Amino acid sequence: MTTSSPIARHLVYHVDPGQEAVIVFKGFNQDGAKLSVTLVSLPTNGALYQLSRVFSDYGYEPKREESPITTVPSVITGSKNRAVFSRPIWGGPSLNSKYTEFRYTMANAAGETSREGIIVITTNDALVTSTFDAGPDNWSVISNGNGAVVHQPISRGGLLSYYIYAIDAVIHRQENGDDSTRWYFNAPAKFLGNQWAAYGGSLDFVLSSAEGSFDPSNLNLDGRGNLVLLECSTCNQNAGITLAMPLGATFSYDGTTTQFRLPLNERAGWLKDPKNIILQWTRPTQCEMVAVLSALSSLRILGDFTRGHESVALDSVTIRHGEGLPRACYTP
pTM value? Predict the structure, then answer.
């Protein structure tokens, strides 16, 4: 594979139950020549169809052939590298999750073939969600001694309904009064791994507190701690990359029930840990942000904001998708 090889893009499409969508297989080619598409894996939910001749040539209904594609590899025959994805009205994963995915390659006239591109079909704009309706959904807390999450199957009205919470189990006061053992809610495996489709989307969640003083004078680090930590242990040739969204003017917390929406892009205020205490944290590059989201090993949300005792609740955690990976972050 050379630097002139075509690139098959990673893309995200939303398809509602009982609906169909025209899928455009998109790629990059340095010389601008026409690319052909080969489907290399089939969706595990729903079905993919070749375009009908009348729709491919003239844009008239019906859009698709009668029978779905059932074998791979299959060359996509529709004009403009298009096919139709059909989602049945029943079945498949629950709402607020990835519905299915399939893969394809692109080739130029010289026979050079791209790496596999991935197309994700979602049930809505959410890739993964914890609503805590049925339990803690494998969330945990870290840096809180033996403290654990508690599932609360009640509604407090508004944004908080069926949630988890934790209470300070350990407080280690430093000379300046800060609690040195700040605990975090720790996300389960379904939020980790390859979440490339989240680039350009957001991380949403609700925080609330029933106990503790959130007066500015009682906040750890004067209210400038890290609200969220994203880690990729295998990034940077296994040296790892940690990204943090710091508390501050853009995102702060005063103990009231608050909805957060953190954009998942390099311009949103995320900072990269230099792994050296004498160096400043810096803004990640676009491709560092993509790399971390593509191999998440840890996602943590701060629960310990104050110097003293507090209880903090977490609800409605969602990773929402963007439009796909930026061109600069593909490798041929």
Answer: 0.90
